[in-house]
Design a protein that fits this description.
Pathway: Purine metabolism; IMP biosynthesis via de novo pathway; N(2)-formyl-N(1)-(5-phospho-D-ribosyl)glycinamide from N(1)-(5-phospho-D-ribosyl)glycinamide (10-formyl THF route): step 1/1. This protein is α/β, with parallel strands linked by helices. The protein contains six helices and six strands. A four-stranded mixed beta sheet has the order 3-4-5-6. Strands 1-2 form a two-stranded parallel sheet. α4 links the parallel β3 and β4. The site of 5-O-phosphono-beta-D-ribofuranosylamine has 15 residues, from α1, β4 and α6.
Length: 187
């Protein structure tokens, strides 16, 4: 699932193509039209769009998203820059199978502005976290982390770009480790 530029997704697509990640990407979904979806389409991967504005309320949107994801019977669901909170029912449906990446060292700086908040706090080291999604906001079990130093003169953009370089690498590496494990749906 993506919401934005999709560079994390691109890293996954490239790793699969290069044979460095033994996975099949069943589909890429988004909550709005975005470059991430275009990247998936360009790679020949099936795409879908489930926009909140098309549903009566957040509950209906969650159910539509849950059913759409389930229709692909995925082993894992990756939130690669997917900027939406999903509800507890959707999380339970894919318990310990939804993997998110967050651009801060959780449990510090959860939420939509992890990079901005870390910079505003004045931390000297921040980073990224790959974690399972639970029903809280960026509170699920931590799978992997990497640290990124804050440099003098960093802006939110410059810091986020350096974090994303590490994020793409760590996300692909983490997925490769999961891909080597027994199938979580049929262990
Ligand atoms: C990543 O830093 C992700 O952690 C955050 O948004 C960014 C998405 O980047 N939630 P991209 O769309 O993969 O380029």
């Amino acid at each position: 699932m993506v919401s934005g530029s999709g560079t994390n997704l691109q890293a996954i697509l490239d790793a699969v193509k290069a044979g460095e990640l033994n996975a099949e990407i069943a589909a890429v979904g988004a909550d709005k039209p975005c470059t991430g979806l275009d990247r998936a389409a360009a790679a020949g991967v099936e795409t879908f769009l489930i926009e909140p504005a098309d549903y009566a309320d957040r509950e209906q949107w969650n159910r539509a998203l849950e059913e759409k994801i389930a229709s692909y019977t995925p082993d894992y669901v990756v939130f690669a820059g997917f900027m939406r909170i999903v509800d507890a029912q959707l999380v339970a449906r894919f318990e310990n199978r939804i993997i998110n990446t967050h651009p801060a060292l959780l449990p510090a700086f959860p939420g939509a502005h992890g990079v901005r908040d870390a910079l505003a706090h004045g931390v000297k080291i921040t980073g990224l976290t790959v974690h399972f999604v639970d029903s809280g906001v960026d509170t699920g079990t931590i799978i992997a982390q990497a640290a990124v130093p804050v440099e003098a003169g960093d802006t939110e953009e410059s810091l986020h770009e350096r974090i994303k370089v590490q994020e793409r690498w760590l996300l692909v590496r983490t997925l490769a480790e999961f891909a080597a494990l027994p199938n979580p749906q049929n262990p």
